[in-house]
Fold each of these.
Amino acid sequence: MLSETDISDFREAGKITAKVLKEAEKLVIAGESLLDIAETAEKMIAEEGAKLAFPVNIGINSIAAHYTPGIDENETIPDDAVVKIDIGVRVNDCIGDSATTVDLSGKQDKLLEASRTALEKAIQAIKPGAKVGEIGGVIESTIKEYGFKPIVNLTGHKIEKGLLHAGVEIPNVKTPDPYELKEGDVFAIEPFATNGKGYVNDTEEVRIFSLHAPGNVRMRQGRKVLIHILDNYGLLPFAERWLHKEFKSKLIVNATIREMVGKGMLKTYPVLKEAGDGIVAQFEHTVLVNKDGCEVLTK
Ligand code: CO
């Protein structure tokens, strides 16, 4: 159960998420550096007195999630791109998670509308006693009415203090999942719509990790990396880029990450790409379930 303080921290995290997302959205212009966008948003979160709940995700066209620029990134927003920005903020471990899509091509407004409307309808369907699998059904039918496909293997997720993915999911399709929402639950809802095949695949690229099970690392420098992760990110996702900034020696950071992944100490978040190279749109809000329905925290 959330205390009054927790609720006000969730509200604060949500407010900052919304504010930073709105600013980050303005930076989505063809030719703009991805690293600049991510770092600007991350800096704004710090200036608000909050922390990151995960690295700023920038998903271009068929990249659905888990892409964040590297420290030496030269990549820029391509012409005519469809760009998702996904931002996570924490205030005393209470998390806000919100995403939006910008269409620079001017050709994907229906796709964006499908995802945006699915989010609105899911929010309207949220109330104590509603089953998550049925909310998935609302998302699925809304996206299909527009002639697109929901991404079946991406989901919204229950949020708990210090936990971005707290076990329960809100699917993007109808499922028999019987979990019933209850007052005080916090959920991120994120309908992903695509004109591709309707599911994502892992790519080889991994830029984001989270601590799974702490253990021993061989090198003394590596132990410093582990302690830094524990102290600063806990179990929340972090960017390789953040460690490269903190430790200067890329070699040590990379060797430590490799060792920890090999030992099962780190969870990896591979960059996710739509299976049919379809364009992906995503809108996301974090909500707090209350007795009448829900309060949108990231608005
Ligand atoms: Co998100």
Note: The pocket of cobalt (II) ion is lined by residues 86, 88, 97, 99, 188, 190, 284 (CB under 6 Å).
Amino acid sequence: MLILAIESSCDETAAAVCNGRMVLSNIIATQIEEHKIYGGVVPEVASRRHTEAISGVCESALKTAGITYKDIDAIAVTFAPGLIGALLVGVNFAKGLAMKLGVPLIPVHHLRSHIAANYIENETLEPPFLCLTVSGGNTILCEVKDYNTFNRIGNTCDDAAGECFDKVARTIGLDYPGGVNLDKIATVPDSKRYPLPTPKTDNEYDFSFSGLKTAAINLIHNANQKGEEIDVPVFAATIRQKVCDILLSKTFSAAENLGYKKIALAGGVSANSELRAILKEECKKRNIEFFYPSLKYCGDNAAMVGVQAFYEYQSGNTAGVNLNAVATLPIDYR
Ligand code: KG4
């Protein structure tokens, strides 16, 4: 079944052709350079750039896969969650295409697709497993009970881990997207030199990053006001370690309490070198299988949308022309 998948939830316009778990093409037009000058994504600019890029990106995905629109069996699109104007561009384009071609339209939840990025290269991965999904806008811990059945057991009460990385990185003078640049320059952490708080939450699997983000930003501002210089590589490593420790402890506590022997990592922050390394090491120690996407499938892309769409379609999840974009929607929506 050849699926043309479209993704436009944030600042990447992406299209891919997939056949089950197989990816035939995966095209991404990134807007990073454009948003860099503002230090973050400007939603209105993102929508405009999606509108300009979407048709060319889809054509390029078909061309790379060596097919034409006539060969497509279904259109898949990210419909939630994300920037509403950005999502609307993809959703409307997908609806038009599905109508014109007379093929099914498959709505895909953005976080479900991030999880599905793990299926692309990990042939043996099958639910059930526990998944930590960490991106710029979301941080959730969920049980993947089946390809289409999710039980969210933990969520961030405020900011996502990616947001914490991005804003702290911006404050220490790194370019957008800060998380990536912070990861690149981090050296050895020093929590004594830069003490940062450990957030507390009511639900043991929930996360909270806004207090940590504010504490880190205040520490930098205070140092600046006193004319002290921040050791940027050490500070970057300290905040990275703190965030990773929080993610790790909640994940393993859930795995232990719920008896999971398979853990997957997903979302843009899954590209973090320290997070991948410590999860890998800790899983090995505990005899837990660990799955993570290769770097090209960590950030927003349409290949993961196409793969999840295959499973959504099998469970009868298709939409009509009344499909709308939704800015916030839990992963276990019905
Ligand atoms: O999943 P994603 O591409 O977009 C959203 O749906 O949010 O995630 C983007 C987030 C940004 O916050 C970015 O800074 C972060 O992922 N990110 C990283 C790394 N690569 C991307 N954070 C830490 N370390 C990285 N290597």
Note: The longest strand covers residues 22-30.
